[in-house]
From TrEMBL, chains A, B, C, D:
Keywords for the protein's UniProt record, in alphabetical order: DNA-binding
A matching Pfam family: TetR_N
Source species of the chain: Ulvibacter antarcticus
MF terms (GO), sorted A to Z: DNA binding
UniProt name for this protein: TetR family transcriptional regulator
Length: 195, 195, 195, 195
DNA sequence: GATGAATGAGCATTCATTCAT
DNA sequence: CATGAATGAATGCTCATTCAT
């Protein structure tokens, strides 16, 4: 195997270990030594790939966020109608949050905690642009309520994080029917009423 | 002042300090010594009121959660109509989350983090019963969608946490108009469509 | 024993351990844990008395330097003649350097190493003032060569450090006769020639 | 360039880097990786030329010491008179210490610190033999005081180290006049008095 | 010879918790 | 009740050294 590939593998193993351990115990309760052990490297090796613990978790956040948005928009096409486009994106996001729950949970923890640099947070937000563009189009067409994007996100997207956490905790198991109901609630909350 | 009152004051000071410090730095980045200093007591004194750090944060969570739900239901009366009752409760919750943001932020961090005992979490949820009862009535009357309470909560209530965090971070300032729009989205997402 | 005394004892034990260990191994090869062990306290206890390792060694330096100069000038009296005063001071310094060699060695290491803050170094120098005053008087009276104090110190006092180190290393054992010879050399090197 | 020359260059670069870095930060605060970087080689390469860090610093010491003594005796000739010979040697040493202060400072640090093997220290001393021989001759001729060579060195030579350090620290700038004064003090301190 | 990636051992420092007063 | 001094057990991070290439 190429030497470069080995490096990438190690980096990935570290990112993966970070996600899993931080999910289970939180940032500060996760020692570097444990991350190293889980990734099968020496603690010192982490510092070949990341500057320090904060950098490790920042980079992990950015990476997961990128993966998340890449997945979200993969099957979306700007020529779709607003409603169709929203449904496509929403379902991809639901898919990601509910199936790839390790990653989703990590993001939720980062987003509700002073665990991530403000800079990395900004970096992570940027990738949502296509959704904001879709909403802008929807507003112009009178299909989406003319309200702040923060409100739209709060009602259309963010509830999925709550559902993911609930499922993760075993409080509920989300089947196809739930997803459909959730989608309807999401759409109802942001579409203009007189449709 | 009664000696008992002095004790209560110290306990309250500890709870308050815990909230503020955990909000700013996270649970594990908040040393007991700092909490003690902010509450103007000796570190050892904390252990007269709480078993250990975990107990301190658990109890803090339960206390804040109780305060939260007490506030939420204070002006609600079971004789109100479902829609009226929901609006009353929702607006109280919005009030709490957006105005008493220290407390609300603390709850959000607890709810998205492995920081709280599962037991304490359960304990905290119980207090929401009146809202669940209201929803049950709404479903029977055909006013509220016949879907899982988790879904209802995810769409009707939880978005307020996201908005509170956004406001806390300075991304948005929520005025009366935003609140009204948010309420409409919340209601749209859970009411049955054919009204 | 008073609680205050116990504190002072611990602080002193730490200072003493620092001197001995740094003498044997150097600053960076002396772990805090070893210092703690030798002083019979926990590593954490050091940080109750000193801010960090650098602070510990700085404070140790200042303390030893103060002890050194206090000893040096103890039997000196400003009414003495220049020659008599110099002899008194010189012999006290010789006494200190050659008998209290642990302390003297520590000072020598600090003075020839980037181990001490520049600030602490300045602080340490201040105490030599009486000797400089004596030399000033000597120059005015035409007894001491009219040359820089640095030169006077280099020839009159500093050689004792070299002799102390040589003795410490076992290369020479300095008896009363050596001391007298050394004193003659010191005095010859700074007195004006035409006496 | 011959392959051998390239090797010598690397070794020299390592020695040079060691001196500069140890001067600035001390032995233990100077990582091998930094030495390697400054010498433009890989850390691993150091181990092709030296057994380990201790060996590197030992060899550096011996090399610098040899350079020092070579310089010191270069213009000395055994046929010179004792006084003339001493002046010649002394002035060469002063030259070295005050102009090649990087090297001189490194020696001073080694000589006042448990940084060097006792063996390497012995090795370094050997080269001073011509000076000791000169002194022996001087004693026989009644020109030099009949006292221990350690005393002679302490007063005649060692003060230059102190002056070099003072100059290095910016406390004094030594001009030709200072040097002449220093020489007089040195000579006064070791010559017999009745000349 | 030369390297850069890798590491185990070690270090300064912190912190939850205890205990004598 | 209340405390501040004390501590053992971590933890993040560094570094001399090795080794596959």
């Amino acid at each position: 195997m190429a030497i470069l590939q080995k490096s990438i593998d190690k980096r990935n193993a570290l990112i993966k270990a970070t996600i899993e351990l931080v999910n289970n115990a939180g940032f500060h309760a996760t020692p570097m030594s444990k991350i190293a052990k889980m990734a099968n490297v020496s603690p010192a090796t982490i510092y070949l790939y990341f500057e320090n613990k904060q950098d490790l978790v920042n980079k992990t956040y950015i990476e997961v966020k990128a993966e998340y948005t890449k997945y979200a928009f993969e099957s979306y096409d700007e020529n779709m109608s607003v409603e169709q486009g929203f449904e496509i994106i929403w379902k991809r996001i639901a898919d990601f949050k509910l199936n790839d729950s390790e990653n989703a949970m990590f993001l939720a923890q980062c987003d509700n905690t002073p665990m991530i640099d403000e800079l990395s947070r900004q970096e992570g937000i940027k990738h949502l642009q296509p959704l904001l563009d879709l909403w802008a189009r929807g507003k112009k067409e009178g299909i989406i309520k003319p309200i702040s994007d923060y409100l739209l996100y709060a009602y259309a997207i963010n509830p999925l994080s709550f559902l993911m956490m609930s499922q993760k905790r075993g409080a509920i198991i989300l089947d196809r029917k739930h997803i459909e109901e959730a989608y309807q609630s999401a759409w109802n909350s942001i579409k203009t009423c007189d449709q």
